[in-house]
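Memo to structure team: turn this sequence into C-alpha cells by end of day. - J.P.
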Amino acid sequence: MPLQAGQVIAVDPKFVLPGLGAIGIENNFAVGIDGGVRITKLSDDIVFL
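Reply from structure team:
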C-alpha cells in the first residue's frame, strides 16, 4: 500500500548485541506531498547510559 500525504510513519531499526543488550533509534516522519518530513526533535547522537 503506497504512503499518502498526511500519514505518519516510524522508522525504528534495532540491533541486539549478545551479552550486551539492545540498541536502537526511532525517527518519526510525516508524509508530505514532496516526501517525508522528519518530526523527531531528538538528535541521532549515540547516548551512553
